[in-house]
């Protein structure tokens, strides 16, 4: 049984539904012939179906992929929310010029293959997303770089996302777990406590964690791209909510 622990027990919101999405339908879609084999190869480590169930995503939602880069999770979210939902694929203009990101995005969206995806090419400081319009947001494997470079910038990002979320909207955070006291900036990692505190400071509540992406064989002493890890790092998985009021 997967463990779910309360971080702020006084604020913990119980989730009563067993599955927020149709897991069988999403699994079939992700295994379909239209999805790239390279993307499918990451599923075993990333467990997207189980992760999105834990986070509480539902079909028909408006979801935002924060700092989406080439859009691996954008495509997963596109299948998950279905034809009645919308996915906002957010990248800063600067990031689109790095590491062939723009080319990767264009290839992923070519021929209108993900018709429910809308690009948001904007900085977090000026998203242009209607306040209180997003049901679900996700930042996957990138919060550490923002936080380690500037905790203030990370806080501004969390506040911008909170502004876009509807009251009661969900924010999911996935990141590479670091060891307390280590040079996590150099290792491209972060501690769970640092993320929790940043969420608390930004006014999110009901923060809960899952060990779904735990990798016990990762000593957390090398960077995520170290060949010995096979891209399977020990990962933090957190769910938080924008307050209802």
Automatic annotation (TrEMBL):
Occurrences of domain Methyltransferase type (ranges): 98-171
Signal sequence, renumbered to the chain: 1-20
Keyword Hydrolase: no
Keyword Cell membrane in record: no
One of the record's GO molecular function terms: S-adenosylmethionine-dependent methyltransferase activity
UniProtKB keywords: Signal
Superkingdom to which the source organism belongs: Bacteria
SUPFAM superfamilies: S-adenosyl-L-methionine-dependent methyltransferases
Any Pfam family hit: Methyltransf_11
InterPro entries: Methyltransf_11, SAM-dependent_MTases_sf
Protein known as: Methyltransferase type 11 domain-containing protein
Source organism of this protein record: Pseudohongiella acticola
Phylogenetic lineage: Bacteria, Pseudomonadati, Pseudomonadota, Gammaproteobacteria, Pseudomonadales
């Amino acid at each position: 049984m997967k463990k779910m622990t309360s971080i702020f027990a006084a604020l913990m919101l119980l989730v009563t539904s067993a599955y927020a999405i149709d897991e069988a339908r999403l699994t079939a879609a992700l295994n379909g012939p239209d999805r790239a084999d390279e993307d499918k190869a990451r599923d075993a480590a990333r467990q997207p179906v189980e992760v999105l169930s834990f986070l509480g995503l539902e079909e028909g939602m408006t979801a935002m992929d924060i700092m989406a880069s080439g859009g691996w999770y954008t495509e997963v979210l596109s299948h998950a929310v279905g034809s009645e939902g919308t996915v906002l694929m957010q990248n800063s203009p600067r990031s689109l010029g790095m590491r062939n990101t723009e080319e990767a995005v264009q290839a992923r969206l070519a021929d209108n293959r993900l018709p429910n995806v809308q690009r948001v090419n904007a900085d977090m400081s000026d998203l242009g997303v209607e306040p209180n319009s997003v049901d679900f947001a996700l930042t996957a494997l990138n919060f550490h770089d923002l936080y380690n470079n500037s905790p203030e910038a990370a806080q501004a990002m969390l506040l911008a996302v909170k502004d876009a979320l509807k009251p009661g909207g969900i924010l999911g955070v996935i990141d590479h777990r670091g060891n307390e006291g280590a040079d996590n900036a150099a290792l491209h990692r972060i501690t769970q406590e640092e993320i929790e505190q940043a969420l608390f400071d930004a006014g999110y509540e009901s923060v809960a964690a899952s060990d779904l992406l735990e990798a016990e064989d990762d000593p957390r002493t090398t960077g995520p791209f170290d060949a010995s890890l096979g891209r399977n790092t020990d990962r933090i998985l957190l769910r938080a909510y924008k307050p209802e009021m």
